[in-house]
């Protein structure tokens, strides 16, 4: 895969709590230079301006990073982000629902955000795959499909259980069967990581150290 094609898989991401408006501006400038698909930022960083002609999409997170928010709060946060210019929403599920295979509650949570941010807004559902066993991953992916999401996503990058794994991406891809996209995020720090995730079925990547990944180096650890 050439570098330009790989860049188009990447949501260039800055979700550190200490991020400033200047940091986000730098992120956007770098994303445009690298040719990534989008930038992904915290919702209070919106609105942002992307360079004309860059084609950059803007994503914002919702219910981040714990997912332990009432569904109506997640829905309101998503709607506000869309109003402020977000093209895509990356929401965090209540992981306990997945752990207990409570598909009905998962669907209700996801559907609330889907209704607040309808198409053409892209909805990605973060399932925190490293904290789940295989059966729970399948249940979470099935709920995302039933509730009308566009993507399932591995991780926030902030959970102590870890981030994306090739095995989780493969299982998620097999479960959604091409009906949804699969985003690998959390710990994608080298080009080899990125290409392995894509080979396993990832159709989008969440990366903070995109320059290092695209250049074949290793991005620094920590966070997303």
Automatic annotation (TrEMBL):
Record SMART domains: DeoC (SM01133)
Pathway: Carbohydrate degradation; 2-deoxy-D-ribose 1-phosphate degradation; D-glyceraldehyde 3-phosphate and acetaldehyde from 2-deoxy-alpha-D-ribose 1-phosphate: step 2/2
InterPro entries listed in its UniProt record: Aldolase_TIM, DeoC, DeoC/FbaB/LacD_aldolase, DeoC_typeI
Organism (species): Candidatus Nesterenkonia stercoripullorum
Gene name, Swiss-Prot/TrEMBL: deoC
UniProt-listed PANTHER family: DEOXYRIBOSE-PHOSPHATE ALDOLASE (PTHR10889)
GO cellular component: cytoplasm
Protein name, as recorded: Deoxyribose-phosphate aldolase
Residue numbers annotated as active site: 90, 153, 183
């Amino acid at each position: 895969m050439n570098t330009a094609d790989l860049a188009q898989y990447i949501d260039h991401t800055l979700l550190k709590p200490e991020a400033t408006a200047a940091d986000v501006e730098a992120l956007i400038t770098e994303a445009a230079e690298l040719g990534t698909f989008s930038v992904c930022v915290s919702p209070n960083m919106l609105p942002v301006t992307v360079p004309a002609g860059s084609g950059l999409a803007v994503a914002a997170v919702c219910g981040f990073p714990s997912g332990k928010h009432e569904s109506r709060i997640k829905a309101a946060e998503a709607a506000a982000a869309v109003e402020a210019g977000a093209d895509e929403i990356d929401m965090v599920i209540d992981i306990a629902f997945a752990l207990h295979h409570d598909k009905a509650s998962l669907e209700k949570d996801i559907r609330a955000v889907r209704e607040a941010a309808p198409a053409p807004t892209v909805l990605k559902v973060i399932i925190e795959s490293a904290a789940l066993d295989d059966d729970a991953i399948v249940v979470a992916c099935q709920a995302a499909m039933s509730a009308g999401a566009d993507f399932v996503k591995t991780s926030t990058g902030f959970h102590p259980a870890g981030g994306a794994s090739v095995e989780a991406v493969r299982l998620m891809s097999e479960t959604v069967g091409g009906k949804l996209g699969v985003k690998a995020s959390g710990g994608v720090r080298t080009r080899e990581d990125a290409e392995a995730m894509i080979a396993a079925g990832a159709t989008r990547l969440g990366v903070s150290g995109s320059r290092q990944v695209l250049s074949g180096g290793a991005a620094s650890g920590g966070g997303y």
